[in-house]
Amino acid sequence: MAQNVRSPGLGLLVFCILLYPAMTTAQQPASNLMPLPESAQYGTGSLAVDSSLSVVFTGYTEPRLERAAQRFLRQLAHQTGLPLSLKPSKTAKATLVIQTDHAGKEIQEVGEDESYILDVSTASARLRASTPLGTMHGLQTLLQLVDVSPGGFAAPVVTIQDRPRFPWRGLMIDSARHFLPLDVIRRNIDGMEAVKMNVFHWHLSENQGFRVESKKFPKLHELGSDALYYTQDEIRDLIAYARDRGIRVVPEFDMPGHSTAWFVGHPELASGKGPYEIERRWGIFEPAMDPTNERVYKFLDELIGEMAKVFPDHYFHIGGDEVNGREWDANPKIQAFMKVHGLKNNEALQAYFSGRVQKLVTKHGKAVVGWDEVLVAGVPRDVVIQSWRGQASLARAAKQGYRGILSNGYYLDLGWPAARHYAVDPMSGDAANLSAEEKQRILGGESCMWAEYVNPENVDSRIWPRNAAIAERLWSPQEVRDPASMYARLDFVSARLEWLGLTHRTVSRHMLQRLAGSASPAEFAALRTLADVIEPVKDYTREQTAPAEPTSATPMNRVVDAVPLESDAGRRFVEMVDQFVASACHDPASEARLRSQLTIWRDNDSILQPLAQRSFLVKEVAANSQDLSALGTMGLAALDSIATGQPAPDSWKAQQLAILEQIKKPKAQLLLIPAPAVQKLVEGVAAGGACSIAKP
Ligand code: ACM
Question: What residues flank ligand 1, with Cβ below 6 Å?
Answer without folding.
Answer: 321-322, 371, 388
